[in-house]
Every structure is written in C-alpha cells, then in structure tokens.
From TrEMBL:
The lineage of its organism: Bacteria, Bacillati, Actinomycetota, Actinomycetes, Kitasatosporales. GO terms for cellular component: ATP-binding cassette (ABC) transporter complex; cell envelope; periplasmic space. It comes from the Bacteria. Coiled coil: none annotated. This is Periplasmic dipeptide transport protein. It comes from Streptomyces hundungensis. Residues 95-466 form the Solute-binding protein family domain.
Length: 615
C-alpha cells in the first residue's frame, strides 16, 4: 500500500519489517551466523565485474507478479517481465513493450495487439501472444491471480491468441486503460505448473524465467535481490554485469555506505542527508518533483464486500465534522517547511502536480485551510465539548482519544506525528502514536484510527483511484483486498466507472478531477505534501543514468525499467563495484558491531511501506 503503493501504490502498497541498525549499517544474522549481504566472497572472485548496487529499505511483499504490490517488488518485476506497453521516459506516453502496436475496433470493445517476434524467455523459448492470453485468463478465472492487479481485467470479457503474434482482448465495457495495462506477462510453460496462486511467492527456484532486461538470479529475505543482464533482451542488454538491491533498515547507514563507495545509489534522502552528500566527492544528488503523495488517512470503519464490519476504529471518525476538524488543524505549509525543509510541495488533491493533466486543487471556498478556531467549532458541533481538564469529551462522557499508525523506519512519519500531537492536543484531542516496523497487520485488520499514508502514482491514475472503490474491499474480513483504507462511496464508484469508460482525454481528466474533489470532500484522506524524489548516486560508479521524466524526474521507482537498464558504468569503476567494495559489502561485520536479529518473516504485505511504497 503501495503505501507503499502503488498506481497500484507508495502503496504504497503506503505501508509496511525490517531489522535494527547499529553504527554505520544494520547487521543481519540468521541463527547466529554472519550472512554476507551481497555475496562478498563470490563478487571478489568475479574478476572485477561491474556491479550496480542499490540501497533499499523496503521488504519485498512477494516475487509473484500476481501478488506483489510494493514499489520494490513491482520495480523488480518491471525488470524481469515485459508488459504489453511501456511509458516513454520523456513524458510518460504509451510506447511499445511486448506489443509493437495496437488498435481498437470502432466500438472500442475489441483491442488487438501485435506481439513482437524478437522477445524470448530467458530459458530460450520464444515469447508469444499465448503467454499474454494465458496471463490475463488466469487473472480472470483465479481470484488469487488477480490479487495485485485485478482492477485491470475487471471489464475483460474474453482474451484469445489466434496466432503467436496476435492478442485479442474483448471487453464487456469500454476501458480507457488499454494502453496502460500494468500487468507483467509471465511464461505460460512455467506458471501453468503453479498450484495456489494466492500463496506461491516465486522465490524458491533461481534463476527465474523472464523476458525483461534483467534475470532474477538470487534473493534472500531482507538481505538482497540479485539480477543479471538478459543478454537476449530485444531492446539490448543492460551495461552493468549485475544489479543488486541491498537492504538497509537505517538510511543513515545506507548514506554512510554511499559515501564510502560501498553502494552505488541511495534514495529517500532526508534534507540533512542530501545536504551532506552535496559536498561528498564523486556523489551526485538528484532532487526532483516526485510521483508520490504523503497523506493522513482515517479509518472510516473497516468493512468487507459481504457487508461485515471489523477492526476497532474509533466511531468518532464516522462523523465527517470530526474528520474535517482534524484536517483543519493540520498546517500543511509548516510540514513542508519544517519536516521536508522545502523538498516537497504543499498537498492539495490526490494526484501530484507532476501529472498536470490530472492534477486538481480545491477552490478557495472548498479548501480546508489551517484554521484551529474552525476546527474547534466543528468539534463543538459534533458534540465533543471541552471538559474542565481541557480534554474533548463526547456525549457518552468518553474523551476523544485517537491512535495514529505510522512507519518506524520513516523519519518523516515520526516528525509529522509530533506536530499532529501538538496541534490536536491544543484542541483537547489525545493522540497515541504507534510507529511500528510492520504496519500491514493492524492496517489490514482495521485496527487503527488514523494512519500516515502515501502512494506512488503512475502516468495513468486508474490504479490509485481504483483502490478507493467498493470493489477493492476484501471479500470477507479474513480476505486480502486492494483497498487503501476501506473507503466505499457510491458516488465515487459511479465517477470511477465513468472515467474508466471515457476515451476522450480531456473528458476523462475532468471526471478524474471530480473524483479527487469527492475524495477531498468526504474527508477520508488529507494529502499533506507531495515529497520530492531526493536520491544520490556515485559518479565514479555510474557515468550516466536516465531519470523519468528525463527533464527533471526520479531514478528509483520509475514507471518502467529505464534507470537501471540505461545506467552506464563509469570508466574504471569495476574494482569498486565488483571487487568486494560496493558489491561486496558484508553486513555481518561493521566497525566491530554486531546486531543479533532473526530474519523477518516473509509476509505478503501491502504497499504501505513508508517512503518506498509501490505505485
């Protein structure tokens, strides 16, 4: 979720553990044995191969593209598998992927894609339209296979492959996302052997067969993900000899590793970290408008599609006046200035300003401005009066005390939480802050009142909109849904259906903005900021790399594989990246400090994973 999220998101999913850190870096130990984070000894023996090492803090939710919703997982799947279409790194418009071209029938209910002839699976077999048809049909007929991306096939009526280069998708209703189907196409001859798609995590046999620019060769939970170039990739093989995502729970440790040349790239930098790195030799800081939003979400009453309520959300939040009062007591400008220190834009609508066609802001008379006096008046109207001790008390005599769920790994969450405690405390509202490593379990169980949320948004906003529909709710209280925070609003659903069926770009954008307005007015979410993408890489290891958009965009978590596929090794970088430095960091011994910790359980989590949430 992703709050990770992610469109699809941050989600984003925003939300979910990691291990503790000591000194310069976190040390991961299993059963008391020191575990190399990136296979240092093996890398030393490679003869100086060029390894691009990316520091990450987010845990993989699943390596199955049918289950994964986090940014780290979906980013890896972008590298492993082709989608029918891709997004141009310059401006995000649809470009060929596995499909070289596509056309719609006059009714727009039948879409025909021409599948390229020059794509092969990494085991040598040719990629065909049958692989794509099988992928979509599996999602249509198996709820487990539709866990992550089911919204994309909701209107699919029939999918066929009349020949190896032709894919035909018939729709029951028009669907505007037919050139933005963010669904990894998998090899049928491998995946048709899978039994339970709701449980298969694709993490037992390596290398994993794919047809993207990289091949997944190894993975250890909360330690590393290793990928090798796919030499037969139709667009051309990546230029580094290996790509390694290495886990750091503590971003200060990751920054220290970057400064020492032990990793090539670090994202999610704090303002202080970015400032310190600007003076570090051979380090370039990228600070650009991001594709994420940072929000305060309420629990409007956790529910499932069968109508059952669950969780323990405070019923006070069912009152829109209470929700509006809370938001009116949040000074978004102060958060941008004091927490993000200017590396963000003030939050308004649901879609970040980077996506200009869909960006919406409330009219002056609609905007919930920072107004503590108005917030107090709204609480009075809702029946929460101030008692002799200054605490707000409801008609039942109970004080208005709320719980805030947040991410222990995210310093922004902790800083924002303190401001909320101060602002709401002045109104007489008690706020218990619970920043935890794993926010997924209480979130999906509906055991929270408020939560710090966020998602990465795709060029096409359909996915991040879909997670607020009634259809995204879990089927039962025990099931897993795609919902972000249990929102089910019939007016929002009606608008969602209309925008999905609208092919006129301007008309669809208007409908999306109406959805944002509705989401704003119902008060279930308050977008507080649009954080910049603040990241850094070593120029003595990476000579050049593509941002998205190219003019001023992010490197990590792109809508595509452009960054890592395009990265060019710096001249003479082999010794650093392959000789046991950047690619051979051993997270078992650092400055003589060893932290004993059990390996985190492999959980199929949502996108809510702090600053790394999926789109």
């Amino acid at each position: 979720m992703a709050r990770t999220v992610p469109s699809r998101k941050t989600v984003r999913p925003w939300r979910p553990g990691r291990l503790s850190a000591v000194g310069a870096v976190a040390l991961v130990l299993a059963a008391g044995a020191v575990v190399p984070a990136q296979g240092a000894a093996a890398d030393d023996a490679k003869g100086g191969q060029r390894v691009l090492t990316v520091a990450v803090s987010q845990s993989v939710d699943s390596l199955s593209p049918f289950l994964a919703q986090r940014v780290i997982s979906s980013s890896v799947h972008r590298l492993m598998y082709e989608y029918l279409t891709n997004y141009d790194p310059k401006d995000g418009h649809a470009v060929p992927g596995l499909a070289t071209s596509w056309k719609a029938s006059p009714s727009k209910l039948t879409w025909t894609y021409t599948i390229r002839k020059d794509s092969k699976w990494s085991d040598g077999q040719r990629t065909t339209a049958d692989d794509a048809a099988w992928t979509f049909n599996k999602m249509m007929n198996d709820k487990g296979a539709a866990t992550a991306n089911g919204s994309f096939i909701a209107n699919f009526k029939k999918v066929t492959a009349p020949d190896p280069t032709t894919l035909v998708i018939e729709l029951s209703k028009p669907q505007a996302t037919m050139t933005a189907l963010d669904v990894p196409i998998v090899p049928r001859h491998v995946w048709e052997k899978v039994g339970d798609f709701s449980k298969f995590n694709n993490d037992q046999a390596f290398p994993v067969v794919g047809n993207g620019p990289f091949v997944l060769t190894d993975y250890k939970v909360d330690q590393y993900i290793k990928l090798k170039p796919n030499k037969s990739f139709w667009r051309g093989a990546p230029k580094f000899d290996e790509l390694v995502f290495t886990y750091y729970k503590d971003n200060d440790a990751a920054v220290a590793a970057l400064q020492k040349g032990e990793v090539s790239f670090v994202s999610n930098l704090s303002p202080a970290q970015a400032s310190s790195l600007k003076s570090t030799p051979h380090v370039k800081v990228n600070d650009a408008p991001g594709r994420r939003f940072f929000a305060l979400a309420t629990n409007p009453g956790a529910q499932s599609r069968d109508g059952k309520r669950f969780g323990d959300g405070n019923p006070a939040l069912l009152d829109p006046k209470v929700r509006r009062a809370l938001f009116a007591a949040v000074d978004r400008k102060a958060l941008v200035d004091k927490v993000f220190q200017g590396h963000a834009a003030e939050g308004e609508g649901y879609i970040p300003p980077r996506f200009a066609d869909y960006f919406w802001k409330p009219a002056p008379e609609q905007k919930i401005a920072y107004d503590p006096a108005k917030a107090a008046a709204l609480l009075d109207e809702a029946g929460y009066r101030t008692g002799p001790d200054g605490k707000r008390v409801g008609k039942d005599g109970k004080p208005l005390d709320l719980r805030l769920l947040c991410h222990a790994i995210d310093p922004n969450d902790k800083a924002v939480s303190k401001y909320l405690q101060e602002w709401w405390g002045k109104l007489g509202i008690g706020l218990e802050v619970g920043c935890v490593d794993n926010v997924t379990d209480p979130w999906t169980a509906g055991e929270f009142d408020l939560a710090l949320d966020g998602y990465s948004v795709n060029p096409d906003p359909d996915y991040v909109l879909s997670i607020h529909t009634c259809a995204a709710l879990p089927a039962t209280p025990k099931a897993t849904g795609q919902t972000d925070d249990f929102i089910c609003d019939r007016r929002f659903d009606e608008l969602y259906a209309r925008q999905l069926a609208e092919y006129d770009t301007a008309k669809r954008a208007d409908l999306v903005k109406q959805m944002e307005s509705r989401l704003y007015d119902t008060g279930y979410m308050n977008v507080m900021a649009y954080p910049n993408a603040v990241e850094a890489y070593r120029t003595d290891q990476i000579e050049s790399i593509t941002t998205m958009p190219e003019a001023a965009g992010n490197i990590y978590g792109q809508d595509g594989y452009w960054s890592w596929w395009s990265a060019v090794p710096a001249a003479g970088s082999a010794a650093k990246s392959g000789g046991g430095s950047s690619a051979g960091v051993v997270l078992g011994i650092v400055a003589g400090a060893i932290v004993l910790a059990g390996l985190a359980s492999f959980l199929v989590l949502r996108r809510r994973a702090g600053a790394d949430d999926r789109e």
